[in-house]
């Protein structure tokens, strides 16, 4: 081996080591901050951690029902459909991801002699750790996506800014049982593995692509629109969709294993639906009169309403969307794919009867896509880092203001102001308090 080749190998090894170290540091930062804040919020009464999680309890209830009570006809957070049964509006996809942490919590429950109810302090703490772990893993995958199309510093800044300046932080800490952090992780993993399949994957990429895809759709069926991302990226690649398909089926063992394990949660979910309703597929929301009204779509309200409007409560994404629109106009990959997914998501959510998504902080439905939004945000940071120091300083001050506003809005969260009434005067009163340092 020549000295030059040896030097190149050593340089590549050092670069890979530095990259993995940075990813681990990012993971630990996000996971630690999420767990610490969740513990501060939930520690005074860990029992209420579950019962004040509202919909979050619906995602978690599968685990104590499966491993403790053994009863599925009337779980803890369901809607009555007969005198003897009630249906869960929430699928078991999140519970699959929570399972390792639940099993750990059960061992700790036995070890510390807590009542085996599934709602002991040990269960609560492990669920906090579960969400923190997936928030950290989602951040790393989001970083890998953004780094693919930008520089390392720009990608890192994008991921951290989204975490600190948006409602992702709120759902990583104040409402960790909700599904959004898990969807954020799954969609980021699905898109990353999809890109690797286009490149020429390893077995693990094929396996994780199929499993994450199955779970992300099970968690929320609307997430099926994300499947457009790898499809469109493959369409625009040199080898096309045919080449991506050949890469996918090249690892047949991983393909079969991924399909089988990805389908198992769907089969279990279907068995549950049949047991409760007699049908192999059931939409729980239809039993309570909740549905889409596609003749009454209000995308403008989803984005700009004082009632959980996305840009209103997470104005940091005005920068992201502005950058995305410019780059989509210029034809930069993968801007148009992300913009299409964003537009379809907003339109579909805007047709939901409760378009503001009930008791929430900001428009929580968009959190699932934040891994993809790190890509245009990294483009923005890369552009700023090439400009004058005056612009860099102004950008940092603006971002600090967005982060400060986000934390202040979380601190002053009020259901009546943010969700029920959603009036501009009441919301501006909250902003005024934040500006005054209250």
Describe the structure.
- There is one protein chain.
- By secondary structure, the chain is mostly helical.
- The protein has one domain (45-435).
- Helix content is 70%, strand content 1%.
- It has 21 helices and two strands.
- The protein has helices at residues 3-42, 46-51, 55-60, 62-69, 93-111, 121-148, 152-165, 167-173, 180-199, 203-219, 228-235, 240-250, 252-277, 299-304, 310-313, 316-330, 335-350, 370-385, 389-411, 415-420, 424-435; strands spanning 79-80, 86-87.
- Helix 6 (121-148) runs parallel beside helix 9 (180-199), helix 16 (316-330) crosses helix 17 and helix 19 crosses helix 21.
- It is globular, with a radius of gyration of 22 Å.
- The model has no long low-confidence stretch (mean pLDDT 93).
């Amino acid at each position: 081996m020549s000295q030059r080749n040896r030097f190149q190998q050593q340089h590549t090894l050092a670069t890979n080591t530095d990259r993995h170290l940075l990813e681990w540091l990012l993971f630990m930062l996000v996971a630690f901050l999420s767990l610490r804040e969740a513990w501060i919020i939930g520690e005074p009464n860990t029992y209420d951690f579950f019962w004040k999680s509202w919909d979050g309890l619906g995602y978690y209830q599968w685990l104590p029902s499966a491993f403790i009570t053994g009863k599925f006809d009337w779980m803890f957070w369901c809607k009555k459909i007969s005198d003897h049964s009630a249906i869960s509006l929430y699928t078991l996809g999140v519970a699959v991801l929570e399972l390792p942490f639940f099993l750990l919590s059960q061992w700790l429950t036995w070890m510390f002699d807590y009542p085996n109810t599934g709602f002991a302090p040990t269960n609560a703490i492990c669920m906090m750790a579960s969400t923190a772990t997936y928030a950290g893993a989602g951040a790393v995958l989001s970083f890998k996506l953004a780094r693919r199309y930008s520089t390392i510093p720009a990608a890192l800044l994008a991921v951290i800014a989204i975490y600190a300046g948006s409602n992702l932080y709120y759902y990583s800490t104040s409402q960790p049982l909700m599904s959004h952090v898990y969807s954020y992780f799954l969609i980021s993993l699905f898109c990353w593995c999809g890109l690797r399949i286009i490149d020429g994957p390893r077995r693990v990429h094929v396996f994780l692509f199929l499993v994450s895809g199955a779970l992300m759709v099970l968690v929320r069926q609307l997430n099926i629109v994300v499947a457009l991302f790898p499809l469109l990226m493959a369409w625009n690649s040199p080898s096309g969709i045919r080449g991506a398909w050949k890469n996918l089926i090249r690892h047949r063992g991983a393909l079969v294993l991924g399909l089988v394990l990805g389908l198992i949660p769907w089969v279990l979910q279907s068995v549950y639906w049949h047991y409760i309703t007699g049908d192999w597929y059931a939409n729980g929301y239809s039993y309570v009169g909740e549905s889409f009204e596609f003749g009454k779509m209000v995308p403008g309200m989803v984005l700009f309403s004082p009632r959980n409007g996305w840009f209103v409560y997470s104005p940091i994404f005005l920068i992201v969307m502005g950058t995305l629109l410019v780059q989509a106009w210029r034809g930069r990959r993968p801007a148009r794919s992300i913009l299409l997914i964003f537009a379809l998501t907003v339109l579909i959510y805007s047709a939901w009867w409760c378009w503001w998504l009930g008791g929430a902080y900001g428009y929580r439905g968009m959190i699932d896509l934040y891994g993809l939004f790190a890509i245009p945000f990294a483009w923005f940071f890369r552009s700023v880092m090439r400009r004058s120091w005056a612009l860099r300083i102004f950008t940092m001050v603006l971002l600090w203001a967005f982060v400060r506003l986000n934390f202040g809005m979380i601190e002053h969260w009020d259901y009546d102001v943010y969700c029920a009434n959603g009036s501009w005067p009441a919301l501006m009163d909250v902003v005024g308090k934040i500006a005054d340092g209250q």
